[in-house]
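Dear support,

I submitted the protein below through the web form. The confirmation email said the job was done, but the results page showed an empty box. After a refresh the structure appeared. I'm attaching both so you can tell me whether what I see now is the final result or a partial one.
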Amino acid sequence: MTYTCVSLLAQRIIAIDWNSSDENFQERVNCIREFLRSSAQWARRMESPAWPFFDVAEQLNPTIRASAQTVDEVLQSIPMRPSTVADTCVWALHFAALRDAGEIPSGLLDPYETLIDMYELGGGFSLDGTGAVEIDLRTMPLKKLEDWIDRPPFV
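What the results page shows now:
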């Protein structure tokens, strides 16, 4: 059997234990910070107003997508639906489909990799009504794209 980036990522997401863990709290915070930094770089490169949570693959090439069956299987494994967490998992699959097709521009990292890492460390996040990210009932303001774009990597 040949494994693709999409199938390997789908297996990773399906295997996630979505129960939060304070044990890895700081690592999870660093992962979301790294996602915000990476997402800011992608948003600037593509001149996207949708920062920080958006489907990078759709903006790069909307004709290349992960299969509907794979997306459905992954969504069935995520308890928090609909949510930004579920959306980012689907967008990560579509980004992996671009990688399989050789359509990823050079110079920037996978914008979703650190989010998947964060989920694997013990769960997701939510957005509160003020536009801040909540991880285990602790809040981190998103700030602005410019606040994240030139920061050094967090992980």
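Response: this is the final, complete result; the empty box was a page-load delay. Helices lie at 5-14, 25-46, 56-60, 68-76, 84-100, 113-120, 145-148.
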